[in-house]
Amino acid sequence: MKYILTAISVVSICCSVVIAYDWHYYILDSGHYFGGPIDTDSDDNPHILYPNSDSKIMIYKYYDGDEWIEEYVDEWYGRCSMVLDDQDTPHISFREWTDEYMMYCYYCYKDGDEWVIELVDDEQYSGDFNDIVLDSNGYPHISYTHSYVYLEDSDLRYAYFDGSEWHKEVVDDEYDDQGDLTSIALDSNDYPHITYVKFEHYTNDRYLNYTYWDGSDWNIENIDIDDDWRIYNSIVIDSQDIPHVAYIKQDNYDLMYA
After folding, report:
1. Closest CA to 230 of 182, 166, 194, 186
2. Lowest-confidence segment of 28-37, 107-116, 188-197, 219-228 by average pLDDT
3. Which of 98, 114, 175, 234 lies 20 to 30 Å (CA to CA) from residue 244?
4. Which structural domains are found in the chain, ordered by start?
């Protein structure tokens, strides 16, 4: 799920009339919360997932056309991501802190009135900076990291569900830290394309990298470099299977496009 808001205007070329739309603001909750992903259903109603940083609970809230409905999903620690399928069913990836310093990557979806939760990666410290997409069969694909603040080495990981079981693999484990701030998209073959940040301690450089699966191998390319803390990024794939990446370089706070 991408965290980009776009203001839209419609331009009539024939009569050169610009129709402007106003922004409307609503307070949906109050307290200590992190911003979370948003998606719209087939009726153009918004669905929002966000974590309560005090209670470490994920909250799913959606508008049914008349009122806002709120549900508690599960415990949470780290990032979370959400996407709706063509039946308006929410699919969520998240990192759960099940015990003291025991963090794992999870996936859940709504089945009727129940939330079904599945363990994706059972290795400790997995699941941070996760992002989720659905393929043409409606199966989830997740990019995420195996990382923690006290972990010396971390890596970028990718997991997908084939209809029967989960498959996961390490995509990049070079340098000391990699996989920070991941974003994932699928092409017309349902092959994954991922952007992520990797860090080299010796030079203090942070690289915005792009990797994609070509059917047999992972290919890794560098998009940009920054010497500040993080490079926020988001990727989409167009109808020609060409990647488009938006990102912010934190050293000068420029919004970039590649």
Report:
1. 182
2. 28-37
3. 175
4. 10-257 (2.120.10.10)
